[in-house]
């Protein structure tokens, strides 16, 4: 009997033991050359190559077919660092596979379905106006990155945890910053390490949220709030008898609401920041966005909040957002783990190995997006012309970002009030941006503001 031929591993060196190519990739991300770093490897070894990242043998996959494999194959499951899982908790939907993952996605779906999302527009509108009044109005210059992080944090606190401005929101903000700081640290839980500080912050944040959950449960039981008031209440309401849903434990609710906050807050802040940067550099596109937004502002009475219908009229502004996400995706890429041997393009991805995908490999590919380095929002006029699995700023398949519509509302409402109230230009030279791992303008993006007068 002939033995079946042995499947071959992808080409490429593993590099130094343990470190592999991790430091080299980090350096490239920090200098915003991560894309070129990957392209160079693909030119040398082809679109399926092996390397070693974070101490794991890893296969890097590039191209549309590779994206389809990553997003459409349940044997490749998301992979987090050990510190991430310890700090964020083991019950996040990121850790779940199969039916458990579907159950959590369905629970989130109750909070993020379109007719519920519509109700959040006015709350987001209120947060944006308050933010602008407190931080932009009367200023001659502002630094956009930290402000956008504050704004998206406040919006999410209000809608994920149902926390209004005040001491509890502030306390939670402090703990979350400390938690996030340790997510990529060495998981050494001894006093004074970064990981140890983040673990302590995680315990304190959980205690705060446990109290919030008790209060929400009471309100829900006494009919004092709508089941869709915020994500926590929404997940608790699924536990009520007779609604036909499987109950979520308190731990699941805490882990997943914290995870939603972390997944959604910086990513959206990055998108708005880079749109503001783009408009400062491109007067023609700025003028078109301003025309669209001013048209909508004129149709409103003073002080009237934006509605879902208004957002649906902001078509050009959203195309600018999508083009920003194509060229500067907040999520550079991420990892999967092979639950069993997988074969792709004639190569073996052995069980237990990691798989790494990166958005830029299709989003900046000239065969898919003509003149990929040109900022051109018209590419998104006819979205069905973009081949599947090529625009993957929100991921794809069963793991596609469930918060993409939420992010759209936040972005459009924020852009509406900024564009209709101010003109701006960069305060100095545009000195590019770094990634750690999310992109961030090198100096935080300081802009000079000029008020447009009462709209
Ligand atoms: C511009 C803003 C955003 C971008 C670019 C973005 C991007 C992404 C990407 C690329 C993924 C998939 C990662 C992978 O497959 O490995 C993802 C997943 C996820 N995102 Fe977002 N996201 C954004 C906003 C949000 C918001 C606002 C929320 C919450 C309301 C959110 C919650 C999540 C969650 C919970 C997952 C995990 C889904 C799962 O594993 O099933 N994201 N996001």
TrEMBL record:
Cofactor(s) listed: heme
| Gene Ontology MF term list | heme binding; iron ion binding; monooxygenase activity; oxidoreductase activity, acting on paired donors, with incorporation or reduction of molecular oxygen
Residue sites binding heme per the record? 401
Q: What is this protein called?
A: Cytochrome P450 716B1-like
Q: Which GO terms describe its biological process?
A: sterol metabolic process
> Which UniProt keyword terms apply here?
Heme, Iron, Metal-binding, Monooxygenase, Oxidoreductase, Signal
Q: InterPro entries per the record?
A: Cyt_P450, Cyt_P450_CS, Cyt_P450_E_grp-I, Cyt_P450_sf
A Pfam family that the UniProt record links to this protein: p450
Q: Which organism is it from?
A: Ananas comosus (Pineapple)
Question: Does this UniProt record's set of keywords contain Oxidoreductase?
Answer: yes
Q: Which family does it belong to?
A: Belongs to the cytochrome P450 family.
């Amino acid at each position: 009997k002939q033995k079946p031929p042995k499947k071959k591993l992808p080409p490429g060196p593993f590099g130094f033991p343990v470190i592999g190519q991790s430091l080299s990739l980090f350096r490239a991300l920090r200098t915003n050359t991560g894309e070129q770093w990957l392209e160079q490897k693909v030119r040398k070894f082809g679109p399926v190559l092996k390397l070693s990242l974070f101490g794991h043998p890893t296969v890097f996959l590039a191209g549309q077919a590779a994206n389809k494999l990553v997003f459409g194959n349940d044997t490749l499951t998301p992979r987090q660092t050990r510190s991430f899982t310890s700090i964020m908790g083991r019950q996040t939907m990121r850790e779940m596979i199969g039916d458990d993952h579907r159950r959590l996605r369905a629970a989130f779906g109750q909070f993020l379905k379109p007719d519920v999302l519509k109700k959040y527009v006015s709350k987001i509108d209120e947060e944006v106006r308050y933010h602008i009044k407190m931080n932009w109005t009367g200023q001659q210059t502002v630094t956009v990155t930290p402000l956008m992080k504050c704004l998206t944090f406040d919006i999410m606190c209000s809608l994920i945890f149902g926390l209004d401005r005040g001491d509890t929101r502030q306390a939670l903000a402090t703990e979350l910053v400390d938690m996030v700081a340790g997510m990529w640290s060495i998981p050494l839980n001894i006093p004074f390490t970064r990981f140890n500080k983040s673990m302590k912050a995680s315990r304190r944040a959980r205690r705060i949220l446990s109290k919030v959950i008790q209060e929400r449960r009471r309100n829900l039981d006494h009919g004092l709030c709508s089941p869709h008031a915020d994500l926590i209440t929404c997940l608790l309401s699924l536990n009520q008898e007779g609604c036909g849903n499987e109950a979520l434990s308190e731990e699941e609710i805490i882990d997943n609401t914290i995870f939603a906050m972390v997944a959604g807050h910086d990513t959206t802040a990055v998108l708005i920041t880079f749109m503001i940067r783009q408009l400062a550099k491109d007067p023609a596109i700025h003028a078109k966005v301003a025309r669209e937004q001013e048209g909508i502002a004129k149709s409103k009475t003073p002080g009237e909040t934006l509605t879902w219908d208004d957002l649906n009229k902001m078509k050009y502004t959203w195309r600018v957002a999508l083009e920003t996400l194509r060229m500067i995706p907040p999520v550079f890429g991420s990892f999967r783990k092979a639950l069993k041997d997988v074969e792709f393009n004639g190569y073996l991805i052995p069980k237990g190995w990691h798989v790494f995908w990166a958005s830029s490999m299709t989003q900046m590919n000239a065969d898919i997006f003509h003149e990929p380095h040109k900022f051109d929002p018209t590419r998104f006029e006819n979205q069905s012309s973009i081949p599947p699995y090529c625009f993957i700023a929100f991921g794809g398949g069963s793991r596609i970002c469930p918060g993409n519509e939420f992010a759209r509302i936040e972005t459009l409402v924020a852009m509406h009030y900024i564009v209709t109230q101010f003109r701006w230009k960069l305060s100095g030279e545009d000195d590019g941006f770094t990634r750690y791992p999310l992109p961030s303008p090198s100096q935080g993006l300081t802009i000079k503001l000029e008020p447009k007068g009462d709209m």
